[in-house]
Amino acid sequence: MKLKVFSERMFFGFIGLILGFFVGFVLLCVFLVTGFKVDVALLTNITIAMATIFATYIHYDSTQRQRKERIWEINKTILLDLLESLAQVISESKAALEEEVQSQDPEYRSSREPNPTVYKKFKDKQEYGLEVYSALMDEELLKALEVAKSNEEKINKAVFEDETTDTQEAYEESIQSYEVLQSKLRKFVTDVSGVKNT
Fold first, then answer.
1. Which distant-in-sequence residues (6+ apart) come within 8 Å of 191 by Cβ?
2. Is 165's pLDDT higher than 70?
3. I want to staple 177 with a disulfide (CB 3.0 to 4.6 A). Which of 124, 134, 151, 156 is the partner?
4. What does R_g of the chain's alpha carbons equal in angstroms?
């Protein structure tokens, strides 16, 4: 897990702190130069205004966090299931590719039992994600899901119907497409779950 030394939130907090000191210093200089008199009522009003600003910020931040937590709770099951089935598909595809490469040796005897159900399971999760959860997902993730789906359809057509693509080449293209989808899905899960913000 990468540790960010300087996050976006810290950056804006730092900028706000610098601007606050600058504005405060300018206002102090204006008050001192003009001979402005400060009484208890003015200080009380300023204190109340500052407390209101802080309370508003805390409320806004709390609302944003609650919204993010609700989105995560809604999406958690489908996203983690999709991530798990995608990992199984990648693993099965890599094993099948390795077997395809080794099968070119005439003395090779396969001891691996293929598991085609992982592809069906992933396709079902992918369809469910595209049809049901599409309104709650990131645009980039939806595009990656659709690209992976269309790539898989093209690869299957090229291998089984047209027979224009070599099986090994098809596995390599498929794995590459799934790995791109996996990285985007992991990024989305990290963003939505709030893991990188803790």
1. 138
2. no
3. 151
4. 28
DSSP string covering 44-110:
HHHHHHHHHHHHHHHHHHHHHHHHHHHHHHHHHHHHHHHHHHHHHHHHHHHHHHHHHHHTTSTT---
Q: What is the pTM of this model?
A: 0.67
What three-state secondary structure class fits 116? coil
CA–CA distance, 81 with 13 (Å, rounded to integer):
37
Two tokens at 61?
Answer: 């931040």
Contact 148, 126 (CB under 8 A): yes
- DSSP 8-state symbol, 35: T
The single residue listed with the structure tokens 């293929």 is 114
Q: Measured between alpha carbons, how far is residue 156 from residues 1, 91, 116, 140, 170 in Å?
A: 36, 18, 14, 24, 8
- Region 133-154: mean pLDDT is 81
* Cα–Cα distance for residue pair 116/120, rounded to 1 Å: 7
What the block records as the tokens of 125 is 């999760």
| Identity at 56, one-letter amino acid code | T
Q: Which run of H or of E encompasses 189?
A: helix 167-193
pLDDT, average across residues 148-165? 74
